[in-house]
Amino acid sequence: MTKLAVRGFGTLAGAQAPGRGSPRDPWRQDDETSRLSAAERGRAEALSVPADAVPLVLLHAFPLSSLMWEPMAAELPELAILTVDLPGAGFSPLIEPATIQAAGRAVIASLRALGVTRAVVGGISMGGYVAMSIMRDAPELLAGAILMHTKARADDPAARAARLATARQALAADSTEALAPMAAKMVSAASRASSPGLVETIERWIAAATPAGVAWAEEAMAGREDLLAVLTASGLPTTLLAGVEDPFTPVAAAEEMAEAIGPGGNLAVLADVAHLGPLEAPNMTARLVREAYRRMV
């Protein structure tokens, strides 16, 4: 099983606090197949998790990388945080097959390689799909889950076809330019006003994603199964975060998930937030994540 790139923050031994140390270039590539730089590989292999730690494992949104977690992680210095680049994103290589379940199993393998025996998994958007897959395949590894701006239902035929068309377009054009309009849609009008550089930053991250990585993710998301039953069956305490202005994963989707979870679930709805709460409202999101983590651990 291919191991994915993992970074540590907070109280985790060997972690480097955001904004400290040598500058990090998250998009540097060694070659077209690996995308895992020698420097980052060394940092990943040197990372160790204390035996008594229960890390918060964060899985990013599409078409971004683990870099998106840094503003929120900076608000949680007391927590042991691991951020993972999903297949084809950031420093992680592509894997086969292109499925959400394969991504989940790669995350599980990466955590076990680090000696993690118990964790809280947090996933946003596509990262939420992967988190739910982990809830199904390795519930014994988890103390709980925090699912942000995501949904459990599989894509309908039209959405599935659109994803596959985007995958083909990215590969044919050898570009992610077609995804650029997503950036403005991912954040609310209030977020654009309060953080005028945010959309530009997201556009830059999207432009830096590789066409192959985008195609892999779109294919994986298009083929994902309905995961609503996983929430009912897992029995894990689960917190849901939803944005009122989210055009991709509406509040109604989170409400359906909360109903499926039952008494073990909590739902927080964020006003003036769209699809990227950890970037739009890092302070508020960090507070909710901290509260959820403390309930679970």
Summarize the structure.
The protein is an alpha/beta fold. It has helices at 38-46, 70-73, 100-113, 126-137, 157-173, 182-186, 189-194, 198-208, 211-222, 228-234, 251-261, 277-280, 282-296; strands at residues 6-10, 56-59, 80-84, 119-124, 142-148, 238-243, 265-270.
How would you describe this structure to a colleague?
The longest helix is centred in the middle third of the chain and has 17 residues, at 157-173. The two termini are 29 Å apart. The protein is an alpha/beta fold and 297 residues long. It has one domain: Alpha/Beta hydrolase fold, catalytic domain (Rossmann fold), CATH 3.40.50. The chain has a seven-stranded mixed beta sheet with strand order 1-3-2-4-5-6-7, sandwiched between helices. It has 13 helices and seven strands. α3 packs across α4 and α5 packs antiparallel against α9 (211-222).
